[in-house]
Automatic annotation (TrEMBL):
<protein>
    <recommendedName>
        <fullName>Chitinase domain-containing protein 1</fullName>
    </recommendedName>
</protein>
<dbReference type="InterPro" id="IPR029070">
    <property type="entry name" value="Chitinase_insertion_sf"/>
</dbReference>
<feature type="domain" description="GH18">
    <location>
        <begin position="21"/>
        <end position="323"/>
    </location>
</feature>
<dbReference type="GO" id="GO:0005975">
    <property type="term" value="P:carbohydrate metabolic process"/>
</dbReference>
<dbReference type="Pfam" id="PF00704">
    <property type="entry name" value="Glyco_hydro_18"/>
</dbReference>
<keyword id="KW-0378">Hydrolase</keyword>
<dbReference type="GO" id="GO:0016787">
    <property type="term" value="F:hydrolase activity"/>
</dbReference>
<dbReference type="InterPro" id="IPR017853">
    <property type="entry name" value="GH"/>
</dbReference>
<dbReference type="InterPro" id="IPR001223">
    <property type="entry name" value="Glyco_hydro18_cat"/>
</dbReference>
<comment type="similarity">
    <text>Belongs to the glycosyl hydrolase 18 family.</text>
</comment>
Length: 323
């Protein structure tokens, strides 16, 4: 079943350039050097996180503070926006949130809910950006009501963005079981006004414990094939990892780290290339380090391309390798 929804906007997909590359930019440490990557490599779509949905249901814009670049570098500034436009075809402003903030925002639909939509649409219009990227997580905690309200929010936001010829991207969850443990169903988004649907195909380790890869190739293949049955290539963007993690072997005290951080901890060199994922795994005593590097990223990208998908988005720029 392919999507009946057709974007009215121009696509970045080009048959002469079969893979369109997206990348998320997180503000502050450990991703301060994200510009080094997008200035050196051609990235079609940049997704900077300029807003957080706070637990009280309000939006917080993250501004770059020249006196506190450790925690705010790559956040919003006029200079940052100008630079992103210089080095990418499209810019999607990411809004990050969790279930508590989502519930409080949706509970205040008459005021706060509408206000959030207006703030986001006005922001991308004012700064002449491509659109919005919604990343509301804690999917395992969503109730049926949460999910219903979320879909309504997406419908309202997408429709209003489209009236301004702007785009909407939505990030979605993964699971390792045969059936979804969440309220979320990708088929529900087929006819919603979403230009880019981005299944985040990573965090596998959270289901099976430390020592597992972030994204096994067989799992990635299964998800690509499922998503291609629902969404056309101009809408489907496969989320891939560039990050790694460390933890106690077999446990769940997982701490996500950039490749640079793992190398600083001596958790990369001397590790073993895992056949199931192409990732580097190194065990030191009871501590395990799992890393993505250029090789593992390229193996995953080639798998995506071999299955006929044409867009990927990488979490995250800064401190990590690129293709």
């Amino acid at each position: 079943m392919l999507s009946n929804y057709h974007s009215a906007h121009s696509s970045i997909f080009n048959s002469q350039n079969p893979t369109a590359l997206h990348a998320w930019i997180y503000y502050g440490a450990p991703a301060q050097n994200a510009p080094d990557t997008y200035k050196k490599h051609k990235i079609d779509v940049l997704r900077p996180q300029y807003f957080n949905l706070l637990d009280d249901g309000s939006l917080q814009r993250i501004d770059e503070d020249p006196y506190d670049l450790y925690t705010t570098q790559n956040a919003f500034s006029e200079k940052n926006i100008s630079e992103l436009k210089m080095y990418s075809k499209e810019q999607l402003v990411t809004i990050s949130g969790h279930v508590t903030g989502m519930r409080n925002a949706f509970a205040k639909r008459a005021t706060n809910y509408t206000g959030i939509v207006d703030i986001l649409v006005d922001f991308v219009n004012e700064h002449q950006l491509t659109g919005i990227d919604i990343d509301f997580e804690s999917y395992n905690l969503w109730t049926k009501t949460d999910y219903t309200n979320y879909k309504h929010f997406i419908s309202v936001l997408g429709s209003k963005l489209h009236k301004s010829s702007k785009k909407l991207a939505v990030c979605g969850p993964m699971w390792t079981s045969s059936h979804s443990p969440h309220q979320w169903k990708y088929i529900d988004f087929v006819n919603l006004p979403v230009d880019y649907i981005t299944p985040m195909v990573y965090d596998y380790q959270w289901d099976y414990g430390a020592g597992q890869p972030t994204c096994p190739l067989a799992w990635l293949k299964r998800w690509i094939l499922m998503m291609k049955k629902l969404f056309k290539n101009e809408r489907l963007v496969i989320g891939l990892p560039s990050y790694g993690y460390t933890a106690s072997l077999g446990q769940y005290n997982i701490k996500n780290l950039s490749l640079e951080q793992i190398k600083h901890l001596n958790g990369y060199h001397g590790g073993i290339r895992d056949n199931s994922s192409a990732e580097i795994i190194k065990v030191v005593g009871n501590t395990v380090y799992v890393s993505n590097d250029r090789e593992s990223m390229n193996v995953k990208r080639k798998l995506v391309e071999s299955l006929g998908a044409t867009q990927v988005s990488v979490w995250h720029l800064g401190g990590n390798d690129w293709f």
